[in-house]
Amino acid sequence: MVGALDISITKSETSKLGTLDLANIPFGKYFTDHMLVADYENGEWKNVEIKPYQPITISPANAAMHYGQSIFEGIKAYRHENGEAYIFRPFDNFNRFNKSADRMQMPAVPEEIFIEGMRKLIELDKEWIPAKKDHSLYIRPFMFANDDVIGVKPSDKYKFMIILCPTGPYYAVPMKIYVEEHFVRAVPGGVGFAKAAGNYGSSMYPTNEAKKKGYDQVLWTDAVEHKYLQEFGMMNGFVIIGNTAITPNLDEGTILAGVTRDTVITILKDLGLTVEERPISIHEVVEAYQNGTLKEVFGTGTAATISMIKELCYKDNVMTFDTDSWTISPEVKKRLTDIREGRAADTHEWLYKV
Ligand SMILES: *Cc1c(COP(=O)(O)O)cnc(C)c1O
C-alpha cells in the first residue's frame, strides 16, 4: 500500500559537489544537490518529494510575503571518520518547529516528513559532509503560508521545505556587544519563543544601530525595565560568575529555547558547575565585573556553537574581557564538538544516525 506520506525521490543527474572547495566555503551560499518539498492543502500534507535543488514559483499574492506566516529551524549533521552521518538532536528541533507553527497558527508537520524526510535527504547528499574536523552540514527546514489571496487570515495552504548547505571550519571571533535599552526583541505574550522569520526582520534595524556604534550585536533586555538579560543577538546567553553559570529562564516566552543552550547546560553540569536558569539583571553582571567574580560571558547557537564576548557596553560601563585566558567556554565547545564529530562518546544520546 502506498501511504499519503510516502516520499518520492527524483535524483539529480549531475552533482555540483565536484565544483566546490568545501574547505573554503562561505556559510549559507551553496546548497547541496537535493531539497525536500511538501504541500499542505485541504487539511492534509501531500506531495512529499525529494528532488533536485531548484527555484520555486510563488504567486505575487503569496500570503507569507504579505502577512508573515513563516517559520524555520537550524540543525547540523556531521560525518564521522567511519563514514557514517549523524544529525544532532533533530527531535528537539522538530518539537520546537511545531511549537513555532502553533503560535503562528500554522499546521504541525508530521514526524514522517520532518525527521524521516530530513534523514532521507541527507542520506542522498551525504557526500556533501566531509568527514573532517569542524565540517558539517547545515540543515534548514522551513514552512511558509502559500495562499495566493490578499487578506489577513491564516492561510489554507502551506509549503514545508528542507534545504542543506555544507559548512567548513567556522572561527567564531569574540564579539563586542551593546546592551540595548530602547529597542526590544521579545515581550511576554509575544513570539520571542518561536523561530518566526519576522523576529529576524525586526532585529535588523537595532542591530545596525549597534554596528554604527562599533558593536557586533545587541544584548536584548526585557521590554519593561530594560534591566533583565534576554539574548545576545540571535544567540542564547550565559554568564559565569564564580562557579555558577547563569542563563535567562524560559518561562516568560521571551527566550528562544535553544538546543545548544540546553546542551551547554548539560555539559556545564558535567564539568561540575552549578547552572541557574533565572532572571539575571545587567546590574548583577556589572557588579560581578567590578568585584572580579565575573569569569566568562558567551552566546550559544547552532551556527557558531559558542561565541565568546570580549566587550560588553552598558551605558557608560565598558566591560572588557581577556577571552584568551578563558577555560570554561573553550572546554564546553571542545566537549560538544568532540561528541558531534565522533571523537567522544555520545553519553547523552544526542546523535541520530542517518
Ligand atoms: C535559533 C535561535 C537560537 C539558537 O538556538 P539553537 O537551537 O541553539 O540553534 C537562539 N536565539 C534565537 C532568537 C534563535 O532564533
UniProtKB/TrEMBL annotation:
Alphabetized, the UniProt keywords read: Amino-acid biosynthesis, Aminotransferase, Branched-chain amino acid biosynthesis, Pyridoxal phosphate, Transferase
What metabolic or biological pathway is this protein involved in? Amino-acid biosynthesis; L-leucine biosynthesis; L-leucine from 3-methyl-2-oxobutanoate: step 4/4; Amino-acid biosynthesis; L-isoleucine biosynthesis; L-isoleucine from 2-oxobutanoate: step 4/4; Amino-acid biosynthesis; L-valine biosynthesis; L-valine from pyruvate: step 4/4
Which cofactors does this gene product need? pyridoxal 5'-phosphate
A single BP term in Gene Ontology: L-valine biosynthetic process
Domain of life of the organism encoding this protein: Bacteria
Could you give a GO molecular-function term held by this entry?
A: L-isoleucine-2-oxoglutarate transaminase activity
Top enzyme class = transferase
Which InterPro entries does this one have? Aminotrans_IV, Aminotransferase-like, B_amino_transII, BCAT-like_C, BCAT-like_N, BCAT_family
Described by its record, this protein's role is as follows: Acts on leucine, isoleucine and valine.
Q: What is this protein called?
A: branched-chain-amino-acid transaminase
Q: State the organism of origin.
A: Lacibacter luteus
Q: What is the lineage of its organism?
A: Bacteria, Pseudomonadati, Bacteroidota, Chitinophagia, Chitinophagales
